[in-house]
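Handout, tutorial session.
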Amino acid sequence: MSTPVRSVPPPDVSPAHGTPCDDHLVQGLLDGDEAAFAAIYQRWGALVHTMAWRALGDAHEAEDVTQLVFVGAWRGRSGYRRDRGSLGAWLVGITRRKIADALTARTSRTRLTESAAHYAGRLRHDPAESDVIVDRVLVLDALSRLPSDQQRVLSMTFYEGLTQAEIAARTGMPLGTVKSHCRRGMNRLRRAIE
């Protein structure tokens, strides 16, 4: 019968703080020692990059995330607490947050790209649509240059579909004034657009 072999950690490992090497690196990080930080990058850079690459499936994005993780670790080094976990665990936590940020940014870019492609596709397939959009922009620009009462009356007419009597009732203007604002505003719009 064989004797079970117990796995005994090397004598220089302390479960609370890791190896003395880790303690030295942590202290160097906290002190702002660039050489210690370079050693931290050498030790955990591949792990961070691998995590990012597996999550994102893109080498360039993984490189960006790796850089962001270590920049974040350097800038946020005063936030590291030994009693909350090892330096490696702290870096893994930062990595997970940066991966989540990258995925969120990717989703936003994808939605924006799809929206732009859909919009561009509509313009390519329907040239009349582009004319309508140009007309809207011209009308809005000309409308914004009108005196405020004329703007208000025409906006209520076109965008809310109100009659002149309804506009008079809503604004408290006399019906004749609403009609004057409408007529003058339309004449100015026509001249501006022509």
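The second record follows below. Compare its token runs with those of the first.
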Amino acid sequence: MVTVYIAARDIGNYKDNTERLKEILIESDIILVESFREATTLFKALDIKKDRECLIEFSEHTKKAKDIDEIITKIINCKTVSLISDCGTPVLEDPGRLLIEYCYSHNIRVRPVAGVSSVTAAIMCLPFNFKEFYYTGLLTRDDREREKKLSYLKRLNVPVIILDTPYRLGKVLNAVKKVYSKDRQVALCLDITTDNEEIIIDEISNICAKYQDNKKREFVLVIS
């Protein structure tokens, strides 16, 4: 019976990749990747040799039922298949969930290869109370809708975890400052696990003034 492994990889530091991840990738007949470039860079770092024919792009653009049906047909004829994203744990903010839905509908076994997640990495090193928290992930691109969502989150009275693309950091910080009080304490985790890692806990107004122009750094924002 074929098994599809949802495999977590590093979020910036290749040394965080597990031996099990390497084993599964080597064993996989097919590897579904978010982008060929990031996947081949990972394989080079882990000294894994895979033919391009073994790789299938599964990204935000893979939405047509026809394309997914073709992928499922290929998967059914395999023994081991894995899915990796460009960084971290698949499914949270990439199209892996759609693949999993199709796998279950076709009685294909799905298993995790646990590893690094930017969400848990941020939680691990912050002094906030995370007995309960709200993961909101990527906010909408629309400014008005983003503020509307933040207004809802403000009422929850639990830490809120936000992810977004690096080039929207400034917009996210400004929106949080506008909706929350300027002295609301937040944590900005930048480039976690890399040599450029920074974890800053401060009032949103101070962080907004200092970091809103950082457009090329991966980030996790936690509102206390």
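Points raised in discussion: Residues 32 and 83 are 5 Å apart (CA to CA).
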